[in-house]
UniProtKB/TrEMBL annotation:
UniProt xrefs under Pfam families: DJ-1_PfpI
Species, as recorded: Nonomuraea diastatica
Coiled coil regions in record: none
Keywords: Membrane, Transmembrane, Transmembrane helix
Keyword Transmembrane helix: yes
Protein name: AraC family transcriptional regulator
């Protein structure tokens, strides 16, 4: 009998090769995605070249594991793993010599392995098309996979919707304004070109040319409330500094969590004021800005370069370092920022020497601070340089900042993601409430008191949404003008909690209960404004959420007593229940399908 050996070739062989190739591409992608959090978060890999090699190793590992499942030999596994991994170290050689940028290394490095994998399979098509290496997917595996996918689909969908909604709400512009967020050209037309329907103007401020002048930047697309208001209160509270919040042109700026600010001046108005008073700008502070438009970013970075060239001391707070780096002023300098943002900053701005573990880095005419509340230390350093150490010491005492380190930056812990930090993902995805939080605001409130209420529950704890409630525009303790988004009466039916920040408000106890909601006065005694807020989060939600909030604020809470539930158990139970419901639905659907099929 003649043995007709099947030769490689033909449509069936081509189909097997294509299918096998797609499987290996998916395996490489899964290896990269599953191991990427380990490199970035756990091992805290910040260097691009090290990260890209580890990522390539993850891709090669995914391919190797799947080839083992397919029962390939070790020589073929090594060959295919090399095809996936080796292009990356080869491409890093021109990267190290400055010939190839990081983005191009990443792009080319993802394309070449795909080509080499295909070439290896065509070269050894007899083996890769061999039916012995086929992965036989049994019926019970299909049913099990379907149940697992159904169990993951429902909690995954809920997580995606809730997380996108909460993060998307952080800097949402109010509906009743058409404020101009473009760049100010400096031309004085004598009229406000913004189309604001909210009639609010900044409070006039007396300017003393004998005092140093500091401008704090606000972006029209959104500005981090604590990055801005913390340093502002430190400086303005001394009475020894002309302090202005400036913007490139915006007449109403959304701050974190539903609070809107009217900037004091535009760039052009500030220039005219200083010119009229024969004065100069002494310092500029750059908080984290939320995704400024290209036009606004260009206007801001150009203005920063102009002020620095004119001799102004420039300071960034937290992720404001990204804006400062985009201006080019940090090139060749040492800088710091928030630990969470550091990997991205190192990738995007390779000419900057990024460091961690310190409150701020003083580089002469440039100061960069670590995360959020580190801006207070940065502002105190600016006070030391523009006024004197005594002024800084008094300012730290006034805001009850216990971590002031005179003359030098304090060391801080080099934070990284740890297993308990999954609490923020649970809160963002599944927290059942109370999630809609009204914040009653009024004249005379401290800027740090405001910031503590609007950033802690939203951007950091992720337990809910806040909205500013009041009877009209109000002014803070040191002269900033804000516009609430609603009144208490109009919003009460949709609220779960009603918070009242401010020590003066707590002493007056003037807010009545509305729609069954009793006001919660956050600041009942003289202390740092964030302490009672963290205690409220621990008591109302859970202690781990409060600790995560403090960690992302870069605020040590060793001496702050936090009591409450240890963990967000409701938010933990919700995805488990959703997964059981999804799995049950898949089982029921499978049984129903089998019954219908047997009947026919």
């Amino acid at each position: 009998m003649t043995n007709h050996e099947r030769r490689p070739g033909g449509a069936r062989t081509a189909a097997r090769l294509v299918w096998h190739y797609l499987e290996l591409v998916i395996a490489a992608a899964l290896g990269m995605m599953l191991l990427d959090p380990l490199w970035v978060s756990v091992l805290k890999v910040g260097r691009f070249d090290v990260y890209i090699l580890l990522m390539a190793a993850g891709m090669a590992a995914g391919v190797a594991i799947w080839m083992l499942v397919r029962r390939h030999t070790w020589p073929r596994i090594a060959e295919m793993g090399s095809a996936v991994f080796l292009p990356f170290p080869v491409l890093l050689v021109p990267y190290w010599f400055g010939v190839l940028p990081a983005a191009l290394v990443s792009l080319i490095g993802h394309v070449i392995p795909l080509v080499l994998m295909a070439a290896a399979m065509v070269w050894r098509r007899a083996e890769y098309a061999d039916p012995r290496h086929r992965f036989r997917f049994r019926g019970r595996w299909f049913r099990g996979t379907a149940i697992v996918l159904a169990a993951l689909l429902l909690p995954g969908a809920v997580s995606a919707v809730n997380t996108v909604g909460k993060f998307g709400d952080l800097y949402t512009a109010r509906a009743d304004t058409g404020a101009d967020t473009g760049a100010d050209t400096g031309a004085d037309t004598g009229a406000d070109t913004g189309a604001d329907t909210v009639a609010a103007r900044p409070a006039p401020k007396a300017h003393d040319p004998a005092k140093p002048t500091v401008a704090l930047l606000a972006g029209g697309g959104g500005t981090n409330v604590a990055d801005l208001l913390g340093p502002y209160e430190v400086l303005a509270g001394t009475g020894r500094v002309n302090t202005y919040v400036v913007s490139s042109g915006a007449r109403l700026v959304p701050l974190t969590g539903g609070l809107d600010l009217v900037p004091d001046l535009t760039f052009g108005e500030l220039a005219r004021l200083l010119s009229d008073r024969n004065d100069t700008l002494d310092a500029v502070m750059v908080p984290a800005l939320d995704d400024p438009s290209p036009a606004e970013l260009g206007s801001i970075t150009r203005w920063l370069r102009e002020q620095s060239a004119a001799g102004a001391l420039t300071m960034s707070v937290c992720n404001g370092a990204r804006t400062l780096a985009a201006s080019g002023l940090l090139d060749g300098r040492t800088a710091t920022s928030h630990w969470w943002r550091m990997a991205g900053l190192r990738d995007d701005f390779r000419d900057v020497g990024w460091v961690t573990g310190v409150r701020y880095v003083d580089e002469g005419n440039l100061i960069t601070t670590a995360g959020v509340l580190s801006g207070i230390d940065g502002a105190l350093r600016v006070l030391e340089r523009l006024a004197d150490p005594d002024a800084a010491q008094e300012a730290a005492r006034r805001v009850h900042w216990r971590h002031y380190s005179p003359g030098a930056p304090a060391r801080i812990s080099e934070s990284r993601l740890q297993p308990p930090d999954v609490v923020v993902a649970l809160n963002a995805s599944y927290h059942p409430g109370p999630s809609s939080i009204g914040v009653r605001v009024a004249d005379g409130i401290g800027e740090l008191e405001l910031a503590s209420a609007f950033i802690s529950y939203t951007e950091h704890a992720m337990v809910g949404r806040t909205v500013a409630l009041g009877d009209g525009p109000f002014r803070s303790r040191h002269g900033l003008t804000f516009v609430p988004r609603s009144t208490v009466a109009a919003a009460a039916e949709g609220l779960d909690r009603l918070l009242v920040p401010g020590l003066d408000a707590a002493r007056g106890q003037a807010v009545d209960a509305v729609a069954g909601l009793r006001p919660v006065y956050l600041h009942a005694e003289e202390e740092f404004a964030f302490d009672p807020v963290l205690r409220d989060i621990a008591r109302t939600y859970d202690v781990q959420t409060a600790r995560w909030t403090a960690k992302t604020l870069e605020y040590p809470v060793i001496d702050v007593e936090l009591s409450g539930s240890a963990w967000p158990w409701p938010a933990t139970i919700v995805p488990l229940v959703l997964a059981l419901l999804g799995a049950a639905a898949a089982v029921v659907a499978g049984l129903a399908f089998r019954r219908i099929r047997t009947r026919h």
